[in-house]
Design the sequence.
């Protein structure tokens, strides 16, 4: 009986090792190798060094027991070539979100100042607000000077096995990304914010024929594991000219850039 039990344990051990083999083999990739594959899958140099990006879609916002549909949700972005802090605003950005034709969210950064519907915001308030939102873009700078990468382990996101990688920026700011093992899609970002621990899930990727760009169609936002928002991107344009005036908000405006 003893020999039978030992033989059975050896068989189970062999089966377990066989089942884990693909995962162990994939994990032999370094953090840099995984990140390089993620960059290529996302769109290579065109994706990692864009000049501008326009995203158009709609949003679903959750507040307690209430759910609100914003039929229009747009983002306009001008990028800087370098980034030293992962969670501070840089370049230029405008976010606008309309419900029943009214601007519920109107927020912009013109490179120096932050504006909302009431005009220019105080610097401290603006810094906290952007620190609770900026984070994904740092992955484009993962190979910049004084950045470092660490492979933290393996996870599962929406049924996909992922590599979990931490990016540390030159100021020691940390951002965690999950990248699928099979296709190297970037499916999660997570970081600490003044609002709480924040993570986003990315899925429903799509492309346009004229761009080498893998765009997430669904972005789900969570703070302290509570879902607050779903953004459904329906269209995008890359490297279009955006007027500087788009990022200056002195009062409530319904200005919306047309693709």
Sequence:
């Amino acid at each position: 009986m003893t020999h039978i039990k030992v033989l059975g344990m050896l068989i189970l051990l062999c089966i377990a090792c066989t089942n884990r083999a693909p995962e162990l083999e994939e994990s032999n990739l370094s953090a840099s190798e995984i990140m390089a594959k993620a960059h290529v899958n996302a769109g290579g140099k065109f994706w990692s060094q864009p000049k501008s990006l326009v995203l158009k879609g709609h949003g679903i916002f959750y507040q307690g027991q209430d759910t609100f549909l914003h039929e229009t949700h747009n983002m306009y972005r001008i990028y800087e070539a370098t980034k030293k802090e992962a969670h501070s605003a840089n370049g230029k950005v405008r976010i606008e979100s309309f419900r029943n034709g009214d601007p519920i969210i109107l927020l912009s950064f013109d490179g120096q100042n932050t504006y909302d519907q009431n005009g220019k915001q105080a610097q401290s308030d603006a810094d906290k607000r952007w620190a609770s939102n900026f984070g994904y873009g740092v992955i484009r700078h993962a190979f910049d000077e004084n950045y470092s990468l660490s492979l933290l382990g393996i996870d599962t996101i929406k049924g996909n096995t992922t590599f979990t990688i931490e990016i540390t920026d030159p100021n020691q700011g940390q951002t965690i990304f999950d990248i699928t093992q099979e296709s190297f899609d970037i499916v999660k970002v997570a970081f600490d914010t003044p609002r709480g621990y924040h993570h986003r899930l990315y899925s429903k990727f799509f492309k346009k024929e004229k761009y080498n760009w893998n765009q997430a169609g669904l972005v789900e936002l969570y703070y302290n594991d509570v879902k607050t928002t779903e953004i459904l991107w329906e269209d995008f344009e890359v490297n279009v000219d955006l007027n500087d005036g788009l990022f200056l908000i002195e009062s409530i405006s319904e200005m919306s850039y047309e693709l």
About this structure: Residues 166 and 176 are 4 Å apart (CA to CA).
